[in-house]
Amino acid sequence: MGRIGVVTFPGTLDDRDAARAVRLAGGEPVALWHADADLKGVDAVVLPGGFSYGDYLRAGAISRFAPVMGEIVDAAGKGLPVLGICNGFQVLTEAHLLPGSMIKNDHLHFVCREQVLSVENADTAWTRAYAPGERITIPLKNQDGQYVADERTLDELEGEGRVVFRYQGGNPNGSRRDIAGVSNAAGNVVGLMPHPEHAVEAGFGPDSPDGPRRGTDGLRFFTSVLQALVS
Amino acid sequence: MGRVVVDVMPKPEILDPQGKAVAGALPRLGFGQFTSVRQGKRFELEVDGPVTPEVLEAAAAAAEQVLSNPVIEDVVRVADIEADAAATVSSQGLA
């Protein structure tokens, strides 16, 4: 059974939901603490959402210097699968594990909604259980969600298939080229603004064709990485 | 005690949603002459003792590595705040 670390920073909100998602996918969640430079031998790491350090300075900017992040940056360079969700994505960009950055939503409002995404790359460690081009619905909730990068970086990401998710049905925050999530060159590090861990159990997810709150489109993020660890 | 001021601004090519909102509010209060607003950040870094060239160098490094994110922001000023104030006073004196 794959052991998947879930990091808690001061101000993290979604660590318990992320740990629960790991468990529902069949993995063993392992709590990791920001101040311990110790990954406890985990096979993969999730940086969950929230407002670490109150988003002071810039979202994710202070968490980047947490002792656990040094270990994660080293291990990611050696192929450890890492998923950053929302604030976790912001931490990954500040740590230079992923390109670009997030600024305030173009309309300046906090957004909380069920969001349709297309899976643009189904070859990463975190998306291999999806079909290429598949549409999925998972929650989106943030204030600093507008993905920005310079044109050259955006062209590179597109050319190398590193745009992993794109917003569908309207751009909710002004993100360049409707980008909702990206990966590193190797595909082991993935970050996205929407929240797969909130769509993993029927009765507690987004509305779906199966009924209200029955959407579980986020679960395959976690089964993907468990499969990736086995193969 | 010395004090270094660091100013950080959003890059010109990055849309500044906060500045845009402020620009939208100004004409409603009668300030119609301001056609655009950009909102940045100002940091004041204190040191024991005077602001030496070494202190300014360290402040510039901190500004690049921590206080700003080069993907979205530019460091537009790293300066000894007291020296700046003194220079302003002396230039006013000359005028």
Structure description:
The complex is a heterodimer of chains A (231) and B (95). In chain A, 22% of the residues lie in helices and 25% in strands. Chain A is an alpha/beta fold and 231 residues long. A 9-stranded mixed sheet of chain A has the order 2-1-3-4-11-10-9-6-7, sandwiched between helices. Chain A has a two-stranded antiparallel ribbon with strand order 5-8. In chain A, strand 1, helix 1 (15-24) and strand 2 form a beta-alpha-beta unit. Chain B has one domain (2-94): Mth169, Chain: A (2-Layer Sandwich), CATH 3.30.1280.10. Chain B is of the alpha+beta class and 95 residues long. In chain B, 40% of the residues lie in helices and 25% in strands. Classes of the chains: A alpha/beta (231), B alpha+beta (95). Chains A and B meet through loops of A and helix 1 of B. Chain B: Pathway: Purine metabolism; IMP biosynthesis via de novo pathway; 5-amino-1-(5-phospho-D-ribosyl)imidazole from N(2)-formyl-N(1)-(5-phospho-D-ribosyl)glycinamide: step 1/2.
Helix/strand class of chain A: alpha/beta
Seen as an oligomer or otherwise, the chain set is heterodimer
- Measured between the Cα atoms of the first and last residue of chain B, the distance is 30 Å
Mean pLDDT of chain B: 90
Unreliable stretches of chain A (pLDDT < 50, length at least 5) are none
CATH class of chain B: Alpha Beta
Overall average pLDDT of chain A: 97
The share of residues in helices of chain B is 40-55%
Helix run count of chain A: 5
Shape type of chain A? globular
Strand order of the largest sheet of chain A: 2-1-3-4-11-10-9-6-7
How would you summarize what this structure contains?
Chain B: Its EC number is 6.3.5.3. The complex is a heterodimer of chains A (231) and B (95). Chain A is of the alpha/beta class.
